[in-house]
Amino acid sequence: MKNLRVAGIGFAAVAALTLTACGSDDTASPGNTPAPAPSSEMAPPMSSPAAGAGEGVTTNADVFGPACSQLPQGSEPGSLDSMGPQPVASAASTNPLLTKLVAAVKATNLVDTLNSQEAITVFAPADPAFAELGDAKFKELAGKPDELAPILQYHVVPKRYDAKGLAAAGGSLESLNTAGGPLKIEGSGENLTVNGAKVLCGNIPTKNATVFVIDKVMTPGTNK
After folding, report:
1. pLDDT, tens digit, for every residue of 50-71?
2. Beta-strand (E) ranges in 63-154?
3. How far is 103 from 100, CA to CA, in rounded Å?
4. Nearest to residue 141, comparing CAs of 219, 196, 60, 210?
5. What are phi and psi of 20, to 5 degrees?
6. Residues contacting residue 172 through CB under 8 Å, at least 6 positions apart
7. pTM of the predicted protein model
8. How many H-runs (helices) and E-runs (strands) does the chain carry?
């Protein structure tokens, strides 16, 4: 088994996925004596962004794509509300679009590794993408974790991006499998593609990752 290599990034838990804004102070009117400023002990706490919030952190309102309607609703397992507080591998294990990917991650013993990272982007092939490989090929790879792990690593970027961040990333990104070559990012919004793979459901928020469900399994070294 190959461990994922995350360069320069920790993966501390994201406590919340929404940003809060601090209000500005009012200026005293001319001629009026401003009230004394409260002491530090009396001042109310200032609002601040949630721990870990920042670039690539999304909310349920940011999710897009034709396959998103296939996710369970409300608080059911696999729903956006259910997946959001969970680390990415645990969240994926309840997503009905990703049963084959979850099996692959388990076969390579990468569940704990993915869950322990701090801020990553995951391009997650949907079940039909794995089906194109054929059952025989999938079972063969599942039985060879040393060959399967680099393929899975190629689908993970060691930084957390949302769709807008991907579009602005300059056309290519390095994955965890640096030997596989850069990932080619093209288009934007619902026309976003990664190595030619279309986004079926993007900007899915989890505790430590933003997930983009895609329509193919990307092969390291092909970049197409």
Report:
1. 333 456 788 999 999 999 999 9
2. 120-125
3. 5
4. 219
5. -115, 145
6. 182, 183, 184, 185
7. 0.75
8. 8, 7
